[in-house]
Amino acid sequence: MRKRARLTEPTKDEFDPEDYISLLPDDILVSILSRLTLKEATVTSKLSRRWRYLWTQVAGLDFDANDTLDRIAADPKLRSSERPKYINWVNRVVRQHRGPKLDAVRICFDLDKSSKCAIDNWVKFAIAKGVQKLELDLLENGETLRQPTRNYSFPYKQMSQCKRFSLKNVYSDFAPMQTGLKCLKALSLKCVNVSEEALNCFLSSCPVLKYISIHGSGDLVNVKVSGLSLMLKYLEIVFCLGIETIEISNVNLVSFSYLGPGINLIIKDVPMLDEISIGEGYSGLENNVFGQLSCCLYQLEVLTLDIYRPEENIKIFAFPELPKLKQLILKVGAWNDDSLLEFTSLIKACPNLNRFVLQLIWMSPSKRRRKVLKAAKCSHQFLKLVEIVGYYGRTSDAELVLYFIENAVALQKIIIDPRNQILERSPIGIDQIKKEESARKRAKKQLEAKKPPGVQLLIL
């Protein structure tokens, strides 16, 4: 049998007299290595015999492959050759890891159900090591959701049996370790199918679980989160297109995020809930969103609305008052030169607003010459910061900023970011760069002379 390497304190003869760092105790050196990327930490094994196995003690394993994912996004044909390389890399690290516990494990690569065997073993390895934070980010090309039928499915039935699980079941070189799920605090799953039964397993088997994020699951239909005994504080469900109902009640949740089709959303008895991010359906405001949130609107401090296609009648929409709201973030599709002043009625419903962010997603924006419109005046006493992200230089962009210049009496800073809010790995061509530079020039021309003294205008 292969013997496990033993880490021992060094003798004086093993070191260069000026190599003070190698004289430090193992635990300090491992702490230093944990601040490096996993690949950087692995390279230190070549420094000397003393360093050979130190990296195997790190408590955080972040299998980041951003450079490779960028190449795959540019040339999807590379996927078939790069997948085995990534899987082999993770397998090698898992086999060599000698630390007794894991704080975090992150898998980030374009993987689907064809890699089920390998991913199952990684999940079992992490759970058996008492992992606190587990992230499976399996987005296609590193950035988009795939068809749910091709997703990897989380092995919750095996996971629930992990109290009897031994690492010998995964890799024979490991000593037995029986831990289970009692240490898991955060779980993030992207392009991973999670059923209602699996979600219930997480909630019932993970007593200190505080954060759950699920993106692109094809198996979720009905979600129920209830019970004061739950430690859950953050719940995020994004683009789970088969979902029909989410019920949250009698729980100390502080943050809830949902983005997807219109659903039956039931929220009640959530006294700690003060942050919500939501977008339902094509317009983002379908299905009576504010009616669904009525029980907690008065206590919200942060609200994010995803509005893909603002409707014409939004300007006459009767927004309820949000008396405690301090931050309002709107993610809005930018179509043609449609006026954005219709959102001022929502802003007026937030009397204590401190920060406003508008993130424009360029759908088909266009510039045209037209008269600058104005909304009815309304003094905003506490608004200090306005951020416009995806500023295109349209008249509609400028007139909204001018509204704040004229009505936000406590305004201190305006941030204009003209960069297109596109997918992270999408290539940025010369045409795109020219559009952004044009937007910067137009922002300066449209706004510089209008800002009052004492207000900082920052154009990124």
UniProtKB/TrEMBL annotation:
Transmembrane feature ranges: none
All copies of domain F-box, residue ranges: 18-72
Domain of life: Eukaryota
Gene3D superfamilies: 1.20.1280.50, Ribonuclease Inhibitor (3.80.10.10)
Protein name: F-box domain-containing protein
